[in-house]
Amino acid sequence: MHPGALSAKIVVAGGFGVGKTTLVGSVSEIPVVGTEAMMTEISGPVDDTRKIPGKHATTVAMDFGRITIDPGLALYLFGTPGQDRFWFLWDDLVRGALAAIVLADTRRLADCFPAVNYFEARGDVPFLVAVNLFDGMRTHTADAVREALDLPASIPLVLCDARQPKSVRATLRAVIKHALDTLPA
């Protein structure tokens, strides 16, 4: 980053196995600092992976990455852990954030309710909901997802493929625009 450049913190939140680590990793220009831990049989009753085939590791504290938007702006990306037993970390991860992305998986939409509720209750961090397009497919209309989440019109809802850097960059631009439009001058 060049001298005098600005930086902003963006939090990526959502349910277990929704793609937060993938999103951060797909655009980070530095090696992602992650806290992935292998899941064991002991965690089976707690971390239900039946609807997430191939999930063998989970974030236990955070993911951290950085993307330089232009020479004058770098975004620091903080991915939250998705399981409720780690939610106590969210307040610390969100402190000082410009904005947040709540990543949603329409196959398990209820898993993003706690993240949406968290940011609505805080009220001090603008956020948007990004529907992660697993398998590159859109399975529900944006209106149907908005209605299912009971999401007010003031909260943007975008489509995103967490594996595709171009899609993630578009989502980051959308959340920055929303934050700038929302925050007091």
TrEMBL record:
Give the highest taxon in the source lineage: Bacteria
Q: What InterPro entries does the annotation carry?
A: Gliding_Motility_GTPase (IPR052705), Gpn (IPR004130), P-loop_NTPase (IPR027417)
Alphabetically ordered keywords of this record: GTP-binding, Hydrolase, Nucleotide-binding
Q: Does the keyword GTP-binding apply?
A: yes
GO molecular function terms here? GTP binding; hydrolase activity
Q: Does the keyword Hydrolase apply?
A: yes
Family label:
Belongs to the GPN-loop GTPase family.
Descriptive protein name: ATP/GTP-binding protein
The lineage is: Bacteria, Bacillati, Actinomycetota, Actinomycetes, Catenulisporales
